Amino acid sequence: MINIKTLSKKIIRKSLYYLLLSPVLKRTNWYRNMFVENIYPSNSWYRQNPERNFDLVVLGSSSAKWAFDFTNSGIKAMNWAQQPQTLIEDYNLFRNFHSILRKGGVVLITVMPFTGLNKQTGLYDALKYLHVDAHEPIQPHLYRKAALISQIPLLLGLPALKALVKYCIGKDAPLKSNKNAMVNENHMDEAQLIQNALNYINGWKMQFGIKDLSNPLTPGNLKGREYRINLMRTIIDFCKERNYCPIFVIPPMTEYLKRHLTPEFEELYIYSFLREVNRDIPTLDYSRNETFRNPNLYFNSFFLNNRGRKLFTHQVLSDIASLDSSIISPSQRESLIAQTH
Amino acid sequence: MHTIKLSNDIEMPAIIMSTNWMDYPTMKKVVTAGLQTGYRAFDTARDYGNEHIVGKVLKECLEEQGLKREDIFITTKIGNSQQRVGNIDEQIDISLKNLKTDYVDCWMMHWPYPNYYIETYHKMEKVYNSGKARAIGMANYHVRHFNKLLEAGIEIEPHCVQFEHHPMRTADDIVQFCNDRKITIQAYSPLCRMIEPIRNSEILHAIAKRYGKTVGQVILRWHIQHGSVPCFKSVNPERLKENFDIWDFKLTDEEMKEISSMDCDYKYHLESASCPGF
Fold first, then answer.
1. B48 is an active site residue
2. How far apart are CA B39 and CA B23, in angstroms?
3. Under CATH, what is the fold of the domain A57-122+179-339?
4. Residue ranges of domains in chain A
């Protein structure tokens, strides 16, 4: 028979352990690094910031995060891309915060090499968006578990204990920083760029269970693709119903990475995906743009640096401005042209 | 008391005091002062978390000032979480209990909550037919929401709609739609929170000076002459008096146009941040 007294003591001890140590753990950079910065126009944001009627928002993952810099562009824009971010998170961010856009505002939907495949969502993905001030979860998968862990991070077990020890002995992890990305030159040499590109390719292959990039899609990836096609359609229809202008953007990459992604790969993973989405929206494709092959515009083999971001943003804004008037109204076009010159 | 007639002949006061997010002591002070000033309409919502305080304060204040329930007009709203639960007929009873009354004068759905709002409206129609709400309507609708609702078919035409409306957001499309269908407009944030472009507007200051009024009074008068019913919040009894002193002057057509020219589709409240999928 269970000894009630012993059990109570155990429960109290455990509770005290979790309750007392959690506040300490929450002060660590290890804990803070788990969450994305609250950069979105939420209920608390708009009460502090009078700016409204933004011209453009960016949805996407890592390459989108590092592709744009709208500073001094004359365009009121917000880049909502995070590193990494999936389509469901894009959609939920947009559902929660789209009212910051003006009527007819532009929604740049960034398409990366594997946007057409679905990835498994883990606990850390769920944790990432938990502190975003939104009425509905940005990442609904494992939401409750993530919410509990954000309150009692010790539940993460060993990693939490390690972080706690490091914090106590003054060896806390450094806070996430964008320092590496804020350069004007690529500090990698050729060998490093080759290796960096290979790391990306191998990482993606492992993530999606791909043996050879020229092989047909696996049954799992075909299923993921079907899900992504429907989700992409939903995002585009959502934009159009609200009279926004969704535009696909395929960002560039260095020659070192590009050489792994053959035309056959692009057809299989990118272009056929976009065709199957089957929505009549413009696509701005920079994957073959020679200007942006230059590695000096990047800080590794994939992500644009300060200089690259400014150049690329200007290029994209100019291209949006010159789009057909059925997509961008004459007044919008004039406004964009005026702002980009 | 200046009133506006809804399409079902119910009379609604032409200016409304909002009670959102007020606690009991504040609300008691504000409602007491409001009733003494002449206000007879009060706005609340389940989402403000204080419907029960509104009920308690109104009951006390009516007794204290020798007024009856039928002397005042109460608007409340049903929130998204109640729409999700779906028991709309039970939700009105909860609101009535909170508000210590047998009926509300106007019952609105707070948001066109995606996937729910059409069904909610159909259930609200039944509540209207039961007499527990003398008028029904909605808040924060765009024309596209009205169109979807109409496509789905309705039995009772909405009587009233509440949305953010002020000189920086004239919302001409929604106003036109409402005028065409005889839906009365309640304007929330009618002064756009007196943000800087309103506070320092040369247009508004010039007109205010002409009539010896404040910028706020000029804007409230602009609402009245538009036929929209301003629904504002203040916890300052002096401000309540000031905002009620708008019946002794009339803006010219030219002044009305000048004020409307401030429109830039500026919404202080970002709708999707309160109602995901808006």
1. yes
2. 19
3. Rossmann fold (3.40.50)
4. 57-122+179-339
**Domain B3-273, CATH among 3.30.1130.10, 1.10.8.60, 3.40.50.720, 3.20.20.100:** 3.20.20.100
Assign A190 a pLDDT band (cuts: 50, 70, 90): very high
Residue A135 CA to residue A99 CA, distance in Å, equals 14
Q: Best of A39, A55, A135 to disrupt the B interface by mutation (most B CBs within 10 Å)?
A: A135
Q: Which amino acid is at A10?
A: K
Name the CA dihedral angle for A83, A85, A91, A94, rounded to a multiple of 10 degrees.
-10
By the CB < 8 Å criterion, does A38 face chain B?
Answer: no
Q: Identify the residue whose tokens are 């929170």.
A: B193
In this predicted structure, the answer to whether residue A340 has a pLDDT above a threshold of 90 is: no
Greatest Cα-to-Cα distance within chain A, rounded to the nearest angstrom: 81
d(Cα A87, Cα A231) in Å, to the nearest integer?
A: 7
Per residue in A246-294, pLDDT (tens digit) is 999 999 999 999 999 999 999 999 999 999 999 999 999 999 999 999 9
Inter-chain residue contact A92 with B276, CB threshold 8 Å:
yes
For residue A241, the chain B residues in CB contact (below 8 A) are 144
> Got the DSSP string for A219-281?
HHHHHHHHHHHHHHHHHHHHHHHTT-EEEEEE----HHHHTTS-HHHIIIIIIHHHHHH----
- Count of A–B CB contacts within 8 Å? 53
What percent of chain B is modeled with pLDDT above 90?
99
ipTM metric: 0.94
Q: Does A50 touch chain B (CB under 8 A)?
A: yes
Burial track B171-193 (b if 16+ CB lie within 10 A, e otherwise): beebbebbeeeebbbbbbbbbbb
- B276–A134 C-beta distance less than 8 A: yes
Query: In sequence order, what are the residues at sequence separation of 6 or more whose Cβ sits closer than 8 angstroms to the Cβ of residue B90?
Result: none
CA of A43 vs chain B CAs: smallest distance (Å): 6
Which pLDDT score, from 0 to 100, does residue A133 have? 93
CA dihedral B205, B208, B210, B213 (to 10 degrees): -150
Structure tokens given for B251: 């803006």
Contact A97 B273 (CB under 8 A): yes
Q: Cα–Cα–Cα angle for B192, B36, B187, nearest 5°?
A: 25
Please give the residue of chain A at the shortest CA–CA distance from B81: A135
pLDDT at A18: 74
Contacts of A23 by beta carbon, 8 Å cutoff, 6+ apart: none
pTM of the predicted structure, to 2 decimals:
0.93
